[in-house]
Design a protein that fits this description.
Blueprint: H1 17-38, H2 46-50, H3 55-95, H4 100-119, H5 126-136, H6 144-161, H7 163-166, H8 176-187, H9 192-209, H10 212-229, H11 240-266, H12 277-302, H13 305-311, H14 315-319, H15 321-336, H16 348-371, H17 378-388, H18 398-403
Helix pairs in contact: 1-3, 1-15, 1-16, 3-10, 3-12, 4-5, 4-17, 5-10, 6-10, 6-12, 8-9, 11-12, 15-16
Amino acid sequence: MPMPAADAPVNPEDRHRLIDALRGFALAGVLLANLGYLSLYDLLAEPARAALPTARFDTIAVGVIEWLVSAKAITVFSLLFGLGFAIQIERAQARGAGLARFVRRLCWLLVIGAAHGYFVWWGDILMTYALVGLVLVLFRRASDGVLLWGGLFIALVLPTLLGPWLGGVFPGLPPRSEIDAQALQAFRVDDWHRVFTANAALVNWTRLSGGMLICFVLGRFLLGYWAGRKRLLQQPRLHERLFRRLFWGSLAIAVAGTLLQLAKAHLGWGAEILPRWVNGFLFRLDSLALGISWAAGFILLFLRPRGARVLGVLAPVGRMALTLYLSQSLLGIALFYGIGAGLGPDTGAIGWLLAWVGIFGAQILFSHWWLARFRYGPCEWLWRSLTYGAPQPMRLPRAAVAAS
């Protein structure tokens, strides 16, 4: 039975190249951050890290990654999810369609995320994205002011107010140091059953104790939704002046927040000067501001012809973000877990960085090769087919393949 035109899938040609490239850029940062745990380094206790021969380099490298990349990459990724929701709402309204397709997409994303989290890697973010995305549907009629100021409030202020409830561990759960030590021991041996059991335990621990992540994601979804409504990335040249202000203003806020954190940590500024809750607020402010600065800087570079040529290399990566995100977990496990090559955390941050260069470099090449022949990445095709309830066209026409 033919699919109604109002519910037809979007052609790859209708995508925005800048948005895809920015998503690919964010995915590079997500991989770099996630490899801290995939390489098992972040599961090491502090004495074990200090005993590594690469300890001095590790301290510097990990510090730089934490400040510049970790929460910032997922900030950009989350903003783009919210922006994508705005684009889908706009297209659905233009076709006279409702939100049923978007809800189906999220439900299937939840299934994919649950399979990835419980059977592959405990650090999965897709389950959270799917669940929070369903909450985002409730904001579809909210005003622009609610999206903007509500997003900032949820991302920055609400976690402080809910800290006593969201930041704690449920009664009966072991401390994080204990669950990490158990997981490290299991992941280093060649025993699939032990790996599966330890992975499931980590998934359950993070879901029960990670309430702050809900505020992190929802706040950024709302801000991205606001940006999508304003068509900031759909028509970036019309907003170039705003992007310059966002870049420099967000960068200044991030630097100021970092300096305050350093002063509190190293200059002995006690609770009488800066209360304890300020640390959490400054960390959240730094993560959001620097993530926005990264995105705005990327956009400004992309608006230049040379920048578009260079950064456009990442557009196919962004079009296959789901496939590549899932494969990053598999490749990390294959390299560092005992059920794979068993490299473990003993190479420190050097092994972590080399793996990042190798994996992401291979993914850039693979995404270009694949999308020269097919419309979607393998997992994107599966996700779309499940959403529409029928297999979607996969191969490109021969003329298009020959032209590429």
